[in-house]
Amino acid sequence: MTALRAVSAHVTGVVQGVGFRPFVYNLAVRLGVRGWVKNTSEGVFAHAEGDEAAVDAFVHGLRREAPPAAVVEDVIAEDVEPEGFESFEIIASASVEGMTLISPDLATCEACVEELLDPSDRRFRYPFINCTNCGPRFTIIDEIPYDRPATTMREFEMCAVCDAEYHEPTDRRFHAQPDACGVCGPRLYFQLGGQADAAITAALPPLPEDAAWRPGLSPRARDRNAERARTDAILGAAKALIHAGGILALKGLGGFHLACDATNETAVRRLRERKHRWGKPLAIMVRDLETARRVAEVGPEEEQLLTGSVRPIVLLRLHGAHPDALAPSLAPGLRELGVMLPYTPVHHLLLAEVDRPLVMTSGNLSDEPIATDNAEALERLSAIADAFLMNDRDIRSRYDDSVVRVVSRQTELVRRARGYAPFPLRAPGRTDAHILAVGPEQKNTFTLLKDEYAFVSQHIGDLENAETLESFEQTLGLYERLFRIQPEIVAHDLHPEYLSTKFAMTLDLPKVGVQHHHAHVVSVTAEHGVSEPVVGIAFDGTGYGSDGKIWGGEVLLGDWREFERFAHLRYVPMPGGAAAVKRPARMALGLLSSIDPALLDHPGAAAWRSRLASGEEATLLRMIERDVNSPLTSSMGRLFDAIASLVGVRDTVDYEGQAAIELEAAADPAEEGAYDFQFLGDDPMIIDPEPIVRAILHDLARGVQAETVSARFHRAVVNCIVRVSVLAAKTAGVRHVALGGGVFMNRIVTAGAVRGLEGVGLRPLTHLSLPFNDGAVSFGQAVVAWSRRQSV
Length: 792
Description:
By secondary structure, this protein is an alpha/beta fold. 33% of the residues lie in helices and 21% in strands.
């Protein structure tokens, strides 16, 4: 039969690691199309020939019928000469100079879960079951195109049955690169850690002789039944350890978790003590959606997030202050808790064994990157974990769990990591130079601009130590290699002491310094493609200002290139500098003394003053008076801290943002009153909290409860945003208002500001795919650098 038409098709987007070639093959066979399909480092290419209708249907089907995990960005089909193919084949992948996108890791699909729990299936209880629709992707890849030899699965030679599946076009595992089974694939290992005491050890059942991991183990063919029994014994030991109150280090997709019984208060407190995680909420993993509903409120949007292919930690509102079944110290002082469902086969098996919620937190000491390698975990986590549940599949890219929440039925990211990165955002325009933006110090990410893509990295962490900087550099190197990026420009924060800034300074590249809050605003507007001037409300805890002071309560007018400061919160001293961030009581003293020292003697300040340490007040006042380590700040985040201390919510914090988070949790939703800021002068306008402070002290003196005061303060902040936005928008003749910065992690402030701005005819812009906090800053830096380059 002579072909009537032939096309060459090039498909770009996330089309590797998602079963795209098998899909193309089966599409072609169904339509009677002949030719071939292959992976390359520029995407998927196909040659298709057949009658006119079949070829047309094939081209349309490439986009319309793509696998669920695929993201097809473009299909370019060009007519070519027929070559007389007699069948359709998947041919060998090719590596060229171009770049293609790579899928994030995907949660275990329902079909694999069914097989995992089916005694008649050959992968029954196999802890690494996966298919073309699920399993590890970015965390195991070394190079593109995405084929098994370019992943850490190359160490595991497929058995004959798996190999037959891999090459069978009608099979769900056709060209599934991590395909394996108990005979040929990765396996679990279990061994005690340095913290296991006699009681925990005595609770463990006997283990197989080969249960412990050691370096240099070589994969080998195994008896399926014996391997299943070995796996069951290891999982039984993990169950016994958790039931005995022990802490388990568990290797996941992007690194280790630390797990313990979330219903055991003693175990949770022990985990906090060993991990040095004081006060900060701990996420839990529950077996299924029904268990999640028993713990917290789950709406339709939360249900979709919990059960989808990403499976992030979802912040849910608790039923009551603390559900009876959960340990009280999981989220002290808060009304919501991070909850996630199993997203790997090991999680499914372990949760079924334990049959109770588990704390599932990152496998690290606080402020360090999570451990990914077995030997690394045994060394770094030995002071925390009682035992280790490991495997011999290597991890190439370190990933924390993503954290999301639903506000006004919209999904907001709190931490963008596993399941979202490395999928790129759209760049503001096609760039003719590769741009690296190194991000801020806290909640660091980096961004790489190439062509029309902005690759925002997964959450790296706080760049405050050598270990995290090393993780930053390793991850950057991986992105540069996989996405064929060679930075020609580097953008950085203005703060000279940030490790990210210092790293940028070591690069032999043209440098673009970007003010922190300008980057916040641009990160929002660039997501929306709004390049014209806007009002930018940038409220956060800390940012190096253009005047050398610490900004954080900023109202800016600007576009992607430049900005001017329209208004800012009144400057107040931070006695002790960084120490004031950790002790909100210091911020309260700086606030009161700068407004009016006489306020220290106000009856409403008596309870707060009584909680100060002996001699603390006199020492801090001398520091302020002599301008010794008392930098000035306009930070809205620090104002939240000061108010939280004044009302008795929190004088000292255990983690960043704790005072503001607990102040939000304390707010009475039924309270309708509000305090008022005062606006003074212009160029720039000063937003003065003095009336609020005096009103709060007056209310406290009258015995008004913290819940009422908090609600009135939150309303004041919302009203301030709306009022100053109206003034700024009128001055600049604009309608868009971009909201950015960590203060907008506050649900009350964000929801109230959006409603209020819409109510006065302005157009609020909030993040679509990035968090409000500093995790978005690198994207803003990159866009500013790109925009300034365009204007040269």
